[in-house]
Amino acid sequence: MTRPDLSRRFARPGALEVLRLAVLTAAFVFVLFPIVWVALASFKTPQQMSEPFLFAFAPSLANWQAVFESGVFAAAGRSALVGVITVAISLVVGSMGAYVIAKYRAGGSLTRFGMLAAQVVPPAVMVFPFLTMAQALRMTDTLAPVIFAHLSFVLPLVTWFLIGFFEAVPASLEEQARVDGFTRWQAFRMVVLPQVYPGIGAAGIFGFTLSWNDLFYGLILAPGNAAILPVAIANFNTFRGVQIGTMSAAIMIAIIPVVIASFFIQRRLVQGISGGAVKY
């Protein structure tokens, strides 16, 4: 092999590495720029907002003070309550449903795709039954119909998400547990379920994020005193125009919990994957 061939051969990895770094940097900037812009806008005055690319300015806490006084934190608490209840029910029911589908092939392949039908139906169609039931039960403008509405799309996704994790659990683990005297329920709870803790954690944060970010169902079912966080943020679009600074501060309140939760679930995923076999 000639010297020019050798030089080209060793030059390629460097060029590929530079290209990969450039693509990752561009993707990082593309994803991070809107978040940085919103964070900066939350500290700008209305006069400074007229210059969208102004990065050096004297920060103001007026927008955050307005957010504190607007009841956004109460709406965030309601969103968190709805998300936690929705995810808790989805994980309990979804884990058992996913186990049955994965181990016993209940319903065949049609069940796997059928449970995602709620994702195909437009929310504008799905919301009317929930609204009708809420009015019949005198539960309008409460969190209960919002929770049921969120279960309609979080529960199927959580179940579908967990099927693959249960399929990855070796059948020999449960068989050995049955030989050791475990009942079927004990084998599921003490042997199979701990094996899919990483998947349960990922499904939980995924379902919570979906519930946390939902605007449509909350806007129709609980637009008043029981408004959740996305509805409260949308209320900054007033008849006087969009209050961009205050809305940016409220958006940061919506972003921060999801980022923190994602950080903790990432650690739990790594710990779960590297934990090895479960001892019982």
Structure description:
The protein is mainly α. It folds into two domains: 3-41; 62-273, MetI-like fold. Helices cover 75% and strands 1% of the residues. The chain is built from 13 helices and two strands, in the order ααααααααααααββα. It has helices spanning 3-41, 62-70, 72-104, 108-114, 117-120, 123-136, 143-167, 171-179, 184-195, 197-213, 216-221, 229-234, 244-273; strands at residues 237-238, 241-242. A two-stranded antiparallel ribbon has the order 1-2. α8 (171-179) packs antiparallel against α9 (184-195). It is globular. Mean pLDDT is 82; it is low at 269-280.
Low-pLDDT parts are 269-280
Helix-strand pattern? HHHHHHHHHHHHEEH
- The assigned CATH architecture of the largest domain is Orthogonal Bundle
Neighbour order of strands in the largest sheet: 1-2
- How many helices? The count is 13
Number of strands: 2
| Class computed from helices, strands and strand pairing | mainly alpha
Overall spatial form: globular
Percent helix, as a range, is over 70%
Q: How much β-strand is present in the residues?
A: under 5%
Q: What is the terminal separation in angstroms?
A: 60 Å
Instruction: Assign the CATH superfamily of the largest domain.
Output: MetI-like
Main beta sheet: strand number and arrangement?
Answer: 2 strands, antiparallel
Number of domains: 2
